[in-house]
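User: Let's play a game. I give you a shape written as tokens, and you guess the letters that built it. Ready? Here's round one.
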């Protein structure tokens, strides 16, 4: 059974799309618990039944940018339960400014992978998209996939910092993320993504009418 929102309802009833337009599907697919899980994705973020809500930042400024982001979104749909994506933004590079502009977007969904394994998978997708290892930290790349938030966890290891360490200064992440997870509370700042987005410098971040789905 396929939901017209591209979410496969047959995978797991609990993760069915909360606003599937077909009332019959809604009724048979969403128990009270299923709806509860869905409703929580936008607001509070306890992990549930071994699944953890996660927010991923997507970016590309080399090669066929939109095609690459759409390809990554299809892969994330395989990796995450109940995935949803923001619209796409065209953004000026922030740190090394002498490089092509980026397309950026964000995705949210539920995962049963731990943060380190998830990062590993995302880096594999970056390599699959032709991202070369090495290169300067803020230099051009075909695909950048970052873990922005992982439930209400704070992680600080050598390879991984969650929430993403540069989230607060990045309008190109906060703005798309506020579209799909505005009330999500930053576990260190204690402020919602919406509030953080209202405070960040948005110069160089332009909305487009492009979508990833
Ligand atoms: P950025 O994504 O900040 O523009 P890079 O993609 O060049 O920079 O950084 C890649 C490195 O950042 C990876 O080697 C990874 O180990 C590290 N890293 C630390 N925290 C995160 C995170 N939350 N998500 C993705 N990568 C992270
Ligand atoms: Mg990155």
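Assistant: Ready! My guess for every position:
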């Amino acid at each position: 059974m396929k939901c017209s929102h591209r979410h496969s309802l047959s995978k797991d009833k609990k993760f069915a799309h909360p606003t599937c337009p077909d009332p019959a599907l809604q009724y048979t697919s969403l128990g009270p618990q299923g709806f509860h899980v869905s409703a929580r994705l936008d607001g509070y973020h306890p992990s549930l039944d071994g699944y953890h809500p996660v927010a991923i930042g997507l970016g590309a400024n080399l090669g066929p940018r939109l095609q690459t982001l759409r390809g990554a979104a299809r892969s994330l749909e395989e990796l995450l339960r109940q995935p949803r994506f923001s619209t796409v933004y065209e953004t000026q590079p922030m740190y090394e400014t002498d490089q092509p502009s980026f397309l950026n977007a964000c995705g949210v969904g539920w995962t049963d992978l731990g943060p380190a394994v998830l990062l590993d998978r995302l880096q594999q997708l970056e390599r699959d998209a032709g991202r070369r290892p090495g290169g300067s930290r803020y230099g051009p790349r075909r695909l950048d996939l970052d873990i922005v938030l992982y439930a209400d966890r704070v992680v600080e290891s050598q390879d991984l910092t969650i929430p993403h360490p540069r989230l607060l200064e990045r309008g190109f992440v906060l703005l798309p993320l506020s579209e799909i997870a505005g009330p999500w509370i930053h576990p260190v700042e204690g402020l919602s993504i919406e509030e953080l987005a209202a405070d960040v410098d948005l110069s160089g971040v332009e909305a487009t009418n492009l979508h990833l789905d």
